[in-house]
Amino acid sequence: MRIGIGMLGLGTVGSEVYRLVQEGRDEISRRLDATLEVVAVAVRDPSRVRACSVPESLLRPTPESVVRDPDVDLVVELMGGIEPAREAVTHALRARKPVVTANKALLAEHGTELFELCDRRRTEIAFEAAVGGAVPIVRTLRLSLAADRVERLVAIINGTTNYVLGSMAEGRSYPEALAEAQRLGYAEADPRLDVEGHDAAQKLALLIGLAFGAPLHWSAVPTIGIGHLTPADLSHAAELSHCVKLLARAERRTGQGRLAVRVGPHLVPRGSLLASVSGANNAVLLDSRAAGPSVLVGRGAGGLATAAAVVADMIDVARRIVAGSAGIGPYLWASGPLPFADLDEEVERAYLRISVQDRPGVLGRLTTLLGEHRVSIASLVQRGHQVDPVDVVLLTHPCRVRDLRLALEAIAKDECVLEPPCWLPILEA
Ligand code: NAP
Ligand code: HSE
Hints:
The chain has 429 residues and is α/β, with parallel strands linked by helices.
């Protein structure tokens, strides 16, 4: 049996998918008892030089013409963004052509309607590559933990920011590190999605649907990016035996029936597993009632790693085409919405960097303001000497986030404080 593949997009990921399908043709046929054959490809600019060579005869002028091609049985969407991806995927599903995609932006924005359409038309969308690149977290949550109850999920799910923070810790500037991440094919077409934390929030929303059965629009995830961090934050963290990681977290709060959800930079203890996740790698820590703790780590971004996950999904979906079986929904949102815990009520330790003028009495005023707001100091150092600004770096004992926030608002108003204080939660090992 031959399964006709229609590809939408032939960029960083698409080119590697094409190459893997061509080079792995015989092996895939053996595993599948069918052949995957790319029969149509849509790109924006047919004259562009690509990392793979595709016969001109396969190129089509629009995504729509690929989806409508009667030889296409399976649509692989790798254009990214919302439109025309949403329209093309919708048309494919209406025509009962299954879709494989790596497009978390599309699924986080329009997942509900697309998954419902799958269920109605008894077809499917496979999206392993949309979260964690080559890390098989979607399959793990959907299949391996299907009988379990996830209590906690803490993850590094954006390769670009992990790469940038690691490079900055080694002394590179933020623009240099980001440019390198872009050159290596890790970043989104608009890298603000990465550095502002939105890509991680989109992926977290999908994971929450899978892990907690809770429908969630990604824009509801409280999100902080890495743009306000300075190289000094990374070196202060290192001196304190920590590193800085952009984490995506979703944790059930026992007794409240609520989920504490957030994306943002954290201090992570140097000896911990998450601290060892370097470069563009990703990691997902899960704590579930029956299975206990489990960890998945691997390449989270980059053309080849992501393509491996895409092609694995193509093989998986093709198996069901060969078997003549329908879609495998229902997809996400198995249960109802889960209310969010108020992050202001969370109790956690924090790292603070406060840039001040080096004047008599400044430290006293800072510590008094923290004390007045019930924030207890675990350690304090001043970095720099008489050349303004100097950084006062503090670690707190566990404190209520609301108290800390109000203390920092008061501190920011002090005439010797030169810029808004930076604070990061510290992840407990
Ligand atoms: P990319 O390099 O920018 O490639 C996008 C491809 O889509 C290009 O070939 C482009 O055509 C084509 N395209 C865009 N708009 C089109 C349109 N209107 N009509 C036809 N073709 C169009 O992006 P990418 O890095 O491969 O990412 C693709 C998807 O994978 C995104 O959803 C991304 O979030 C996701 N993803 C990427 C990675 C990664 O590490 N890069 C990892 C996981 C998931 P031209 O080549 O002619 O411009
Ligand atoms: N831009 C994304 C990242 C690609 O850096 O993680 C993988 O989804």
